[in-house]
Amino acid sequence: MLEVWRGRLETEALEAVRSSTGGMPAEFRDALSEIVCQSGHQDLSLLACAASLWCGADPETGLPAATGVLLLRTGIFAHLSLGGFRERLHGLSQPMEGWSDAVTILAGDGLIALGMERLAEGCGRHSAAILTDAVNALGAHGVLAGLSLEMETGRNSLIVPDGRRIWEVSSGRISGFAARAGARLAGASDILLDDAGMAGLLVGRARFLEQGGWMPSMEGLKGKTAFEASTLKEQAEEILGHGPGSALFLSILHPFFGT
User: How many Å apart are CA 194 and CA 168, to the nearest integer?
Assistant: First the structure.
């Protein structure tokens, strides 16, 4: 199931890039398409489709959100390929490694704009709420806040007021947003929206730890990431259960499950 939906998502993302960049130089359009295909962010973006299925709808229902999320994720991680980030943040996907800083910045900006455009145009009457959730996940209380804190870790004594560890401010936030968006498109109740978002957050953090992502604030986790990831998986499974509707979610949580 997961492999099939990876293909569907890649096709949708490539079409979004091609249809929106017709006036740009061919080399730049080709670069954007290559980055989307090679970014490695398909699985966590598919949490939108997984959440739609979990909430009783067809996974197709969440595909517009999944496409927007993939474009957003790829754009953000394009920016993280810049040298200043690479020096501080290790083990993260680097889709623009080897490209000039100018191309990296333009590609990242373009993909983030395309992601927002896709969410606005593809999510129907839910577009406004989903865009609000996207801004919250990315902005001053989400990824931007977490990464800015990471860049200062070790230089200043930093405290997150709400009790999260600094690496948790950004880690999993886009995954949680993806799952919440898919649940919203499926017509989920407020309770299911919150549960789907939490499951997505936990899955995103678990995959981040398993894939070797490393941030300065994670110094105290050395040697403990496998245990932390296992705990996060167990918490996600408590929310998801093991019914048919959980199949795609569990495939993303355990990449060799149900593929």
Answer: 18
